[in-house]
Amino acid sequence: QLPLAGSRLCLYEDGTELTESFFRALPPQTELVLLGPGESWRGCAGDIERLLAAFCSQQGAVVEAARRLLTDERAPRRQKLLADLIHNLSENILAEDREDDKKWFEGLESRFKNKSSYLRHSCESRMRGYMREVSGFISNVHPAARDAYRGIIDLMADKLKSVKYNGCYFDRREEEEAARLCTAEGWFSCQVP
Predict the structure, then answer these.
(1) Residue 186, Cα to own-chain centre: how many angstroms?
(2) HSE (CB half, 13 Å, CA atoms) of 180?
(3) In whole numbers, what is the pLDDT of the chain averaged over residues?
(4) For 132-156, what is each residue's pLDDT tens digit?
(5) What is the C-alpha to C-alpha distance for residues 19 and 26, in angstroms, rounded to an integer?
(6) How many CA atoms lie less than 13 Å away from 61 in the CB half-sphere?
(7) Given the DSSP bridges, would you call strands 8-11 and 32-35 parallel, antiparallel or unpaired?
(8) Of the candidates 57, 53, 37, 34, which has an alpha carbon nearest to the alpha carbon of residue 45?
(9) 21 CB-contact burial (10 Å; exposed 0-12 / middle 13-18 / buried 19+)
(10) Model-level pTM greater than 0.85?
């Protein structure tokens, strides 16, 4: 029943087409997709795209569908993707102001009126903390190098002050896209270890 002529095997997760030598090197239980002539597979990202497309009109239904998929899912990577999807779709991520997402602001000082101002403040505070830590290390520096060390700390502090301690890194409203590490929706991911 399989269409042998023109058929191909691909990895389920990313759509990589398998060669015979690659196939033999796969670990046990690797999930594959058999493609007939003219068919294509872009990987499980296609499943996620379909979920996200449905999300636009039926967020609750998408969350419920993802929960059902998760109950039968055994692949750890897909379990993580589905769990993250459920968590993030259940959040009111696009809301920016305190009155639009009261749950997000629980436990935060009332002076923060929107998510971006809190994230900007949080980033600035962390950068200041790093500078205090670096400054506090001066007693461990060899006495002959302390003046040079102080000079470097002062240069770093001046640079950080001039860019407002890089508070823009996690401010999704930052207009200069290159200045922030997150998307306009507030998503970010680590780029290096």
Answers:
(1) 9
(2) 19
(3) 84
(4) 999 999 999 999 999 999 999 999 9
(5) 11
(6) 9
(7) antiparallel
(8) 53
(9) exposed
(10) no
